[in-house]
Amino acid sequence: MVTDLNEEEYVKLLDRAFSKIPDVSAAKSDFIIPKVESIAEGSKTMVRNISSIADAGRRKVSEIARYISKELGVPVGADEKRLVINGRFTSDDLNKRVARYFELYVVCKECKKPDTHLESAGGGMFYLVCEACGSRYAVKSY
User: Fold this and answer.
1) Element of type H or E holding 105
2) Which CATH architecture has domain 31-106?
3) pLDDT digits (tens, 9 = 90+) for 112-141
């Protein structure tokens, strides 16, 4: 059955319909960077959950290890289960480094989603390419 709506009723119905649509831009992402689980043993620090951190960012353990080594200025050894850092570092210090890595090399600057990958641009440069929104950003090599 078709009814005749005047303009005022039509606008009210449109406003009601638009008010029920969720605001996608205001929706928070459920992405959380895993906290570093570290243990100090003598003059070394072991990160036990490096594989879960790498999995969260869809990056290789070796890439994160190379970044942390450069940031801390110490040698770092890595395998799939743990990261061995020469020197004693607190979990807070390591969490700051990991958060900075994700900020620079994982999370899209446009849409704030972690659905990205790195493409080599040559000359020590990479492109951070977002698979969610299609943005591309040039980033320095680590």
Assistant:
1) helix 91-105
2) 2-Layer Sandwich (3.30)
3) 999 999 999 888 889 999 999 999 999 988
